[in-house]
Design goal:
The chain is α/β, with parallel strands linked by helices. A hairpin with a 3-residue loop joins strand 1 and strand 2. Helix 3 packs antiparallel against helix 4, helix 10 packs across helix 11 and helix 11 packs across helix 12. The two termini are about 35 Å apart. It binds adenosine-5'-diphosphate (ADP) and ligand LANB7ZPL. The site of the ligand CCCC(=O)OP(=O)(O)O has 12 residues, from loops. Adenosine-5'-diphosphate binds next to helix 10. Its main location: cytoplasm.
Length: about 350
């Protein structure tokens, strides 16, 4: 009989913390705790959220009656460590140092690896991250920005994009590596990945002001005006950064990062909310159109996923604009928790070797 491994998965996102325990691929529980703009806005640095997020994990395990000692491994969503190839990485001291500093930037996912490591160390069990946000498979052409000092970087949602790519491929009767997909993850951050035969060869940097605006980020901005703002003397660097990530996008225009709240306002006749929300769909559609040109039009399907993809009216706006490129398939929510667990199981069952972060 196959051994059963009990795995705790921890996934801190910009607008939520997701916690799950699996016995092999069977979910014991999955819990999503949403965080409003006001709550998240109270923290000036990502690391300041450490206790807030860790207590949520520990309390949820208690509430669900899961004994910590029954766990065989812990996996966290990997954050802004150095760029790596996709795969499952054992967490080590070096990774923790890099996640704490945020060598590639600040994002809630940095805490995923750190919390996983702390809990695993207490229990003397292994800790991993799988397909962290900095997985880098970009082609050289995609790295050129127009200013040599600022190369384009890959910071996005590879864990969910690849999981959804595998799902769509199975539905189409083949393997992820056989298709060309444009995959839009519509979460707190928004990324549109160009997946060519199983590699993300281009993607907007969802964290550093690149691509569409999102529920909590400004996305790409006219740089001249941004430079003027930076040198106006009115803002500190930290304040400007917060306007780009955290208090940007829907939060800046509408005071909320929650698509469901915006749906309600639109239903109640709020025309301004509709304009802003539709503008987000418009920018996402433009980015998908750009991705189609990267693939020279050879697109098998466009996949929409992430929390905002639950909203049928929102996905209809996108379908209307990009449906001429390829069929649009919608996968609301995310498949990150099972993808994290599957990454660990592949290593524990010897199907794949664990990668070493250095
Ligand atoms: N039913 C829904 N309709 C519209 N937006 C939704 C819905 N459910 C979740 N969202 C939005 O999706 C975003 C969160 O998506 P998610 O993929 O969970 O991202 P994150 O990892 O950043 O927490 C939030 O802006 C949330 O308000
Ligand atoms: C580093 C980009 C990943 C991202 O934006 O994730 P969330 O949407 O979960 O914040």
């Amino acid at each position: 009989m196959n051994q059963i491994y009990r795995i705790l998965a921890i996934n801190p996102g910009s607008t939520s913390t997701k916690i799950a325990v699996y016995d092999n691929e069977d979910s014991i529980f999955t819990k999503t705790i949403f965080h409003s703009s006001e709550i998240i806005g109270q923290f000036s640095k990502i690391h300041d959220q450490y206790n807030f997020r860790k207590e949520m994990v520990v309390n949820t395990l208690k509430e669900q009656g899961v004994d910590l000692n029954s766990l065989d491994g812990v996996v966290g969503r990997g954050g802004n460590m150095k760029p790596v190839k996709g795969g499952t990485y054992g967490i080590n001291e070096k990774m923790i140092e890099d996640l704490k500093v945020g060598v590639m930037g600040q994002h809630a996912s940095n805490l995923g690896g750190i919390i996983a490591w702390e809990i695993a160390n207490l229990l003397n069990i292994p800790a991993y991250v799988v397909d962290p946000v900095v997985v880098d498979e970009l082609e050289d052409l995609a790295r050129i920005s127009g200013m040599p000092e600022i190369p384009r970087k890959s910071k996005d949602h590879p864990l969910n994009q690849k999981a959804v790519g595998r799902k769509a491929a199975a539905e189409l009767g083949g393997k992820y590596e056989e298709y060309n997909f444009l995959i839009a993850h519509l979460g707190g951050g928004i990324s549109i990945g160009v997946h060519k035969k199983g590699r993300i060869i281009d993607v907007n940097n969802a964290l550093d002001g690149d691509g569409p605006f999102s529920p909590e980020r400004s996305g790409g901005l006219p740089v001249g005006s941004l430079v003027d703002m930076c040198f106006s003397g009115e803002y500190t660097k930290q304040e400007i950064m917060k306007k780009i990530v955290g208090n940007g996008g829907l939060t800046a225009y509408l005071g909320t990062n929650d698509g469901r709240e915006i749906q309600k306002r639109i239903k109640a006749g709020d025309e301004y909310a509709k304009l802003i929300y539709e503008a987000m769909a418009y920018q996402i559609s433009k980015e998908i159109g750009a991705g189609a040109s990267v693939l020279r039009g050879e697109v098998d399907a466009i996949l929409l996923t992430g929390g905002v993809a639950y909203d049928d009216e929102f996905t209809a706006w996108i379908k209307e604009r990009v449906g001429f490129i390829a069929p649009v398939m919608v996968y609301p929510g995310e498949f990150e928790m099972i993808a994290l667990v599957q990454g660990v199981l592949r290593v524990m069952n010897g199907v794949e070797s664990v990668k070493i972060y250095s």
